[in-house]
């Protein structure tokens, strides 16, 4: 499913790149060139996301017993790096034109083609963000935000270049190109920051940990004394939980183990993608005094 979204985004990115490159060739506008470059980054990003999802989907194996889901973060970091390279090219093309503005041609057709590309991209962004949230996939979500900001940028570029055409203020073209470059840089920063959280074993949000805690307390009522020291970490669509389960000191191992297996199963059902590991303790380890 998530892979379907990645494949779709690759196809759309290629189409949009073609349209934007055409818009640039028709007009010679550096602003439209920078817009096309952003699409080139999109194509590379979609490819990286697709490869990462292929890897992430592989089941746990001997040297990756916790699965391969973190491959998604690696792909998002790669995307961030790519995003840094595009602005350098834009600066190289746009800076000379600040001093010597170049009149543009074929604006009507070029801008029309660019608008068509943005329409396609807008539909794609909406789809990616929806799927990314549904699958808790950082690669898809990063891709979705990327495409969305691409749409906003493109609309700004079309407006600005159109204005330059109407007024003859051709210096607007390189100025817009540089603005796009800055926006691409900011985007790269955001993508990298989000993914580094996952690579650094960031825990689940506090509200979710609290929900898990409440869920466990209800489940153990009458069979164990308390749960404490909940620790979580997330890895793409999967997340991991460790906690201590305090039982009466004379509880048979068989009974405690049965409860653990039940809790692990119930947790995986109530919180999809969550895998729990439970440490059993006798009542001397209790942290609270109330029952
Ligand atoms: Zn403990
Ligand atoms: Zn067991």
Automatic annotation (TrEMBL):
Domain of life: Bacteria
Record membrane topology: Multi-pass membrane protein
InterPro entries: Cation_efflux (IPR002524), Cation_efflux_CTD (IPR027470), Cation_efflux_CTD_sf (IPR036837), Cation_efflux_TM (IPR058533), Cation_efflux_TMD_sf (IPR027469), CDF_Transporter (IPR050291)
Domain named Cation efflux protein cytoplasmic: residues: 204-283
Xref: SUPFAM superfamilies: Cation efflux protein cytoplasmic domain-like, Cation efflux protein transmembrane domain-like
Entries under Pfam families matching the protein: Cation_efflux (PF01545), ZT_dimer (PF16916)
NCBIfam families for this protein: CDF
Transmembrane segments: 33-53, 73-91, 106-126, 147-169, 175-192
Cell location: Cell membrane
Gene3D superfamilies: Cation efflux protein transmembrane domain (1.20.1510.10), Cation efflux protein, cytoplasmic domain (3.30.70.1350)
Gene Ontology molecular function: cadmium ion transmembrane transporter activity; ferrous iron transmembrane transporter activity; zinc efflux antiporter activity
Family: Belongs to the cation diffusion facilitator (CDF) transporter (TC 2.A.4) family.
Principal subcellular localization: membrane
Source organism per UniProt: Thermus thermophilus
Keywords for the protein's UniProt record, in alphabetical order: Cell membrane, Membrane, Transmembrane, Transmembrane helix, Transport
Gene Ontology BP annotations: intracellular zinc ion homeostasis
Entry annotated with the keyword Cell membrane: yes
Residue ranges occupied by any Cation efflux protein transmembrane domain in the UniProt entry: 8-200
Transport found in the keyword field: yes
UniProt GO cellular component terms: plasma membrane
Protein's name in the database: Cadmium transporter
